[in-house]
């Protein structure tokens, strides 16, 4: 591991980011894209008045922060601290509490375990889709996908131990909790104690989530079972830690897992439909593959390995619309990255969104082209130029689960229907904790005629 502190280092260039933000108040992601273009892989600072985070986009620098010297870059500071009441001290924290959680949760998300969930997930998804969408009738895409993805994950994680009433409370509470603090992303220098719009809604949502989560955890801990749902397994793993401390640790992991899995998946699964609409020629290839592989059958495990083009399409989707578009860290000690000094205590922002758009590593970077992910191109790609699931010790645990969920959801819907979207051409990403669309999109599902 090289921290490079003996190198001769220089001060980084500072870009006038606040000026760009005021120019693009309605579309702050544009300001961010411009900063990325201007930096072009160089490690720079963004001038946001009293706050000047370092911006990291070059794959070598991403590798340094996420892997080579990862323990110097902790998930603390202005971005993470406001979310602390939601995520607590579990898998989304750092240090010893994170290490303990990772040890318990990692074995749960192996490809083998996740594959064993396929049939259960396919059944739950089919039920949720039928409950949420009426074929032939327009619906709001963002709301519908959230209403399908959240209950699916909750039911998978809690097994059959959670009621519909609980799910109905949890879904909107999470939705609010993960979006209510978004304003602090553009005003990161405002102290946590200074009230901003969204703070009260955040507090109310966390209260609701805690009430539901603690009640279910207490119930499950009092039962003697060997169920294989995520919450039961975590409860057993923490069996020795009794009382409130044990309950809190389970709560922190379950709530963090839910947050990490639903917001990201729902966001990615919303963009799929926008991308299909924007690229009819590529959509035709997706439809052809699904017709050939799944046909009119209910989608199941046996179809998934054959959905090769859909997998490439989803990988390209996560390149241009990486739900985890910004991975903020705080530097513990002084460091040097790419010849630039990083000061202890400052914020370092790794941005998969900008890394995925660097012309040095991506030919025609703004063009949506799933062929980039054809197996024959795999070897030529720089591992750290494509980081939709992060990397290093904090690498996403849900990569495999997401692919499974996405193939089942998209393949399941497209085996029966074709999507028709209204107003999708104007949709661009919106600056929030994940990369949500900036406006509502109306979609209608039209049944596929089969001979
Ligand atoms: C499109 C879907 C998803 C995307 C784009 C995504 C992205 C990411 C990224 C970028 C990280 C790294 C965070 C960091 O370095 O600070 C991460 C971490 C994580 N993800 Fe995902 N994720 C997705 C789905 C899921 C799912 C379905 C799960 C459920 C199991 C999940 C669970 C986690 C967990 C637990 C972590 C924290 C790991 C750790 O710090 O040890 N994610 N994810």
Characterise this structure.
Strand 7 and strand 8 (340-342) form a beta hairpin. The chain is of the alpha+beta class and 451 residues long. The radius of gyration is 22 Å and the shape is globular. The strands form three sheets. The chain has a six-stranded mixed beta sheet with strand order 1-2-3-9-6-4, with helices on both faces. A three-stranded antiparallel beta sheet has the order 5-11-10. It has helices at residues 17-23, 28-39, 59-68, 84-87, 95-105, 111-115, 118-132, 141-158, 164-179, 183-186, 199-222, 230-237, 243-278, 280-293, 308-320, 352-355, 399-414, and strands at residues 14-15, 44-46, 54-56, 73-74, 139-140, 327-331, 335-337, 340-342, 347-350, 417-422, 442-447. The chain has one domain: Cytochrome P450 (Cytochrome p450), CATH 1.10.630.10. The termini are far apart. The chain is built from 17 helices and eleven strands. 48% of the residues lie in helices and 9% in strands. Protoporphyrin IX containing FE (HEM) binds next to helix 13 and helix 17.
